[in-house]
Amino acid sequence: MNGTKNKLTAGAIVIVALLLLSCEQSYTPKPHAYYRIDFPEKEYQLFDVADKFSFESPVYGKITNLKDGQDGCWLNIQFPKYKGTIHLTYLPIDNNFDIMLEDNWNFIFKKIAQKADGVDPHAYSNPERNVYGIAYDIRGNAASPVQFFVTDSVKNFLRGSLYFATKPNQDSLAPVIAFFREDIALLMESLEWKEGKKDKK
């Protein structure tokens, strides 16, 4: 009798345990989500830097820290809502074009790209305006996702870089980078030199 009772008790415990286990909910961890980002409509206005150059600048960007002198020109296009800034540096060429190219290459590949997954260069050419350059898309969690320069290789050299005032995270920043990458492309395409223009026939 006791043996039968013990068997029934043990069986009841097993059944209760199975019922409890079957009632447990299984949770699947959700992938990490990012906030939805709203972007403004693409709209541009001409920005003129005295006797040096001009380009189409996005109206949702704010030109700051403009310093213009004989030795060069420095300015930023800031996008406070997105914590992004395009830094621009203009330098006149004075028999040092090769050095400028080398310095630019060293900065990108020896400093910026050290923590990158790769660098994708894209050449740009506009013979009519005498503007030639390269934009570098830097993959991975690098400090700057886009670097670029444009030049006429004789008198004018303009380099730029996109930075965000936040920890680099390619996944979360990807849509923002893509948005401002279009503005950089238009900047390069619309740029005109005030000196060193190619004579039009």
Question: In words, what does this structure look like?
Answer:
The structure is a single chain. The chain has 201 residues and is of the alpha+beta class. The strands form two sheets. Strands 3-4-5-9-8-7-6 form a seven-stranded antiparallel beta sheet, with helices on both faces. A three-stranded antiparallel beta sheet has the order 1-2-10. The longest helix has 22 residues. It is globular, with a radius of gyration of 29 Å. The chain starts with a helix and ends in an 8-residue tail after the last strand.
Q: How many separate helices?
A: 3
Could you state the order of secondary-structure elements as H and E?
Answer: HEEEEEHEEEEHE
Structural class assignment: alpha+beta
How many β-strands, per DSSP?
A: 10
Shape: globular
Tell me roughly what share of residues is in helical segments: 25-40%
Report the mean per-residue pLDDT as an integer: 84
Order of strands across the biggest sheet?
3-4-5-9-8-7-6
- State which percent range the strand residues make up: 35-45%
State the distance separating the first and last CA atoms. Answer: 115 Å
Q: For the report, how would you describe the main beta sheet? A: 7 strands, antiparallel
Q: Taking Cα atoms only, what radius of gyration do you get, to the nearest Å?
A: 29 Å
Low-confidence stretches: 14-27
